[in-house]
Specification:
single chain; mainly alpha; 7 helices
């Protein structure tokens, strides 16, 4: 992630240098030094973005497999009273929707957050170091306020997710029971 964002920042830096070189003639605009550098940077950025996607997928599959194995082992090791007390829809919701979230949502979300975080940090660093170093203090203050807001938001979002899965549970229970009694329903 760090290499991909650095390469992308270098690509933007190359375009900035090329435009600063200026000139009115076509030969200046098509200066091969900048063109070669820009094409090389684009190739490196593309390759690193591909590598980043592959690594995110590999880590996501590994995490999903680890969580699935642990969940399956704990479900098989549960006493029989657990299955009689817990509706089948709740088991399906926990196993199905929970793993779906881990399989698809978590790796994409972590990748997106990491990419945006590094993009913002590198942009702030480049702009503060070059344009206005006095902006570092207000940006640090905004970062602290953001961290406080997230600390309050996370528990609320987690509770909302729990409520969502609990409301889906009866639907899955009724559907499972309807499938079991399909002959009775037909007759």
């Amino acid at each position: 992630y760090l290499l991909a964002n650095s390469a992308q920042l270098f690509q933007q830096f190359t375009v900035a240098r090329w435009t600063e070189a200026g000139g009115t003639s076509i030969s200046t605009a098509l200066n091969m030094k900048y063109m070669r550098s820009l094409v090389n940077a684009a190739g490196v950025v593309s390759g690193l973005f591909w590598l980043r996607s592959v690594l995110t997928t590999v880590v996501g599959v590994r995490a999903s497999r680890f969580l699935h194995d642990g969940m399956l082992n704990s479900t098989f090791a549960a006493p029989l009273s657990y299955f009689s007390a817990t509706p089948s829809g709740q088991l399906l919701t926990r196993d199905g929707k929970g793993l779906d979230t881990v399989d698809s949502g978590v790796p994409d979300s972590i990748g997106s957050v990491l990419f945006c975080f590094l993009q913002i940090c590198m942009s702030i660093g480049a702009l503060s170091g070059v344009v206005t170093p006095g902006m570092l203090f207000p940006l640090a203050l905004i970062s602290v306020l953001y961290a406080r807001t997230m600390r309050q938001f996370r528990p609320a979002a987690r509770d909302l997710k729990r409520v969502d899965t609990k409301t889906r549970s009866p639907i899955f229970t009724h559907f499972g029971e309807a499938l079991k009694g399909v002959e009775t329903i037909r007759s």
